[in-house]
TrEMBL record:
Naturally occurring in which organism (per UniProt): Tritrichomonas foetus
This protein's name: Uncharacterized protein
Superkingdom as given in the UniProt entry: Eukaryota
Length: 453
């Protein structure tokens, strides 16, 4: 059953979940999660779970992996790369060929990409292009400032460009991070103990024209997050989150000192695609980093948490023997799945597909199973994008229109005039979501007719 939180207030006050701290206002649809063992979601029966488990636990020591929409990238500790198109898991014949390769570690089938790197691989990143026609790219960054570009096609074919040069060289590349339209790298010069961080605006052709010096650090950060106007670094051994102003133009000639944003030995970085979040184990609270401040998102009560993953309106807390799903608005645990004991988790979080949890066994949840989350105080353009994503996922924008109207009926009619009119013209039963919000939509439609031009 789908439930909606809403309030009809004749548009006199905004709809707030927590009026005390005025945190961002969200729209959320409740729905049961469908976390399954990775492989069981494929339509073809067979030993797909066993094959995927072999790739993550038996073939070689896994360092990290990415499950994108049409393919999977595995990176092993010896810098071996395997690209497994999802399409090759659809027939029993191809499954038998892959299983034989996993057993013998010889003669990889032509349907997959397998290659060993002599140069250490630093990071593997997946990027979803702006066009819906093009599938996500895998970028394999290496220590010698080169990268491999890999793209899979719907027909199982794989395009590979090896050893593309980066437009910067500084002895050794140690870390690469791409977010919010920026690429940040950590470099180290030979015979030096310090590390330098550079950033640049990232282009769709995977090249950079101008690198900007940011700061010098004593460690290789375990996490770098870049968002105008700040660059953040995190290292657990250094007890906190640090940041400096972001030079996006390349004007800086000397490194900026890092400023402490928040200090704590018990932080866990949150895996997320929409912002910079940390989990404070001391008080079991998820915090959002914004500027020099932290904002409380929600508190969790799931015992000893090892990893945190955030996607849409759901927070996944991973313990040694469970995956606990929480609602991001309240922190309430809405689903608990017992799993075999595991000391550590590896997580694949990709915008095109969703999440895969790799522990004692592998588990997955598609992003289509996760209810959308809308920040009603976002900028107008972002708000429209969020609304349209909800429409694609749920099939209606009626409920978000209602909540947006409680914030500002004029804004609702200005942004969503066509959507409001379309919803009013449709026929619904009184017990449906659309039926429940129809009276408010009709009021909005009347307001739309009389709004000033």
């Amino acid at each position: 059953m789908i439930k909606i939180r809403f309030e009809l207030s004749n548009f006199k006050k905004p709809y707030l979940y927590h009026q005390s701290n005025r945190r961002p206002q969200f729209f959320n649809i409740y729905r049961k999660m469908n976390i399954v063992e990775w492989g069981s979601e494929f339509p073809v029966s067979g030993n797909i779970q066993q094959i995927l488990y072999s790739f993550t636990h038996k073939f070689k020591k896994l360092r990290t992996f990415i499950r994108a929409l049409h393919s999977i990238c595995f990176l092993y500790e010896d810098s071996t790369i395997i690209i497994l198109p999802v399409a090759v898991l659809q027939t029993k014949a191809s499954l038998q060929t892959i299983q034989q390769f996993l057993d013998t570690k010889k003669d990889p089938p032509s349907s997959i990409l397998y290659y060993e790197n002599k140069i250490p691989v630093v990071d593997v990143i997946s990027l979803s292009p702006q066009s819906d026609v093009i599938l996500p790219d895998f970028l394999i960054y290496k220590e010698n400032f080169t990268f491999d570009l890999i793209r899979t096609q719907n027909d199982k074919s794989i395009q590979l460009k090896l050893n593309e040069p980066m437009t910067i060289h500084d002895s050794f590349l140690k870390r690469v991070s791409i977010n919010n339209g920026f690429i940040s790298i950590v470099t180290q010069r030979e015979n030096e103990s310090k590390y330098t961080i550079y950033s640049a605006q990232y282009s769709t052709n995977h090249q950079v024209s101008a690198w900007a010096l940011q700061c010098v650090v004593d460690f290789v950060p375990s996490l770098i997050f870049t968002r105008q106007p700040t660059l953040y670094v995190y290292q657990q051994s250094d007890s906190g989150i640090f940041g400096c102003s972001l030079d996006s133009k390349g004007y800086r000639r000397f490194p900026r000192p890092l400023t402490l944003v928040c200090q704590n030995d018990d932080f866990i970085p949150v895996h997320s695609l929409i912002g910079f979040y940390i989990f404070d184990k001391t008080n079991s609270t998820i915090l959002q980093i914004s500027g020099k401040n932290t904002k409380k998102v929600c508190s969790l009560n799931s015992g000893k948490i090892l990893e945190i993953c955030l996607l849409g309106s759901r927070v996944f807390a991973l313990t040694q023997n469970s995956i606990v799903t929480h609602d991001i608005l309240t922190g309430e645990a809405i689903h608990t799945m017992s799993v075999p004991n595991t000391e550590s988790w590896k997580i694949s979080l990709d915008e095109s597909y969703g999440i895969v949890f790799c522990g004692a066994k592998n588990y997955t949840v598609s992003k289509t199973e996760i209810p959308p989350l809308i920040n009603l105080y976002a900028e107008k353009s972002e708000l429209m994008n969020q609304m349209m994503k909800v429409n694609q996922t749920v099939g209606t924008v009626a409920a978000p229109i209602l909540l947006l109207s409680n914030r500002s009926p004029y804004l609702a009619t200005t942004l969503l005039s066509e959507e409001i009119n379309n919803e009013v013209q449709k026929s619904y039963t009184e017990t449906s979501i659309q039926g429940q919000v129809r009276p408010t939509l009709e009021k909005l439609n009347e307001l739309l007719k009389h709004k000033p031009e």
